[in-house]
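Side project, low priority. Logging it here so it doesn't get lost.
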Amino acid sequence: MSKLVIRQPSVLIGAVPLFAVNSIRLTEQYALPEVGAKGLSQSTGKITRTIDIDAVLIGDDRQLLRIALEQMASGTDGDAERVDQHSGRHRRNGGPSERQAEKGAVMTIPVLALSYPDETLNYLALPVSGDDGLPQAFLLDIGGVVYRLILGVSFTDPDLVLDGDLAGSFFDLPDADHGLYPTLRVEVENLSGPLRLVGAQRIVPELPLRFGPLRVRFSRMKVAQPNLCGPGQFGSELVGEVAVDHA
């Protein structure tokens, strides 16, 4: 029996989920105590830890998550915070190194806030069908340029696709519990070689994916087990949209 995953955060910072995390970097700096220092400061060095995270906030509550991240980055006791509204980069300035060491970690969280779900663009329905199964491909003519979109799924356990006992099962993609992740590949139809490929990405529900001028998003990916490897009328549902960013 399939399990509907409403929200699967990639990383938790405190109680704040960060989706589509691109990178995480932890930096530790150690300072030796001064020569002749007295008491406990002579036997324990000062440690400053910095966490850098590149991630995307999505969903109706993305602004609340951003505020929660800013509050964690700013800390307490008068710590100063610098926020660059254009780049979405949040930094905490902890003052002297001694004060930073007492507090433990210095939080640096660059966050890219996307419009949700790209309200400024005019999205149109994609010609996808659950009955066509996976993988499936279709062509889009955008301003005289023909793009080939190839929708597929990656999996870690072949039994999920081949086991006949699962023929009546449905999977809401992406399904992290079963290792099922939908993918999208975009190509320019009339080009060849390395110029043909525009890009390939994993699909995150409701997250607009950028492929050159195209923006593609999926809101529903309920796939029956037989449709994971071919066509057929088994009740699968695929709902996707595409828009063109002329900026």
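Brief comment: The first strand starts at residue 11 and ends at 13.
Revisit when time allows.
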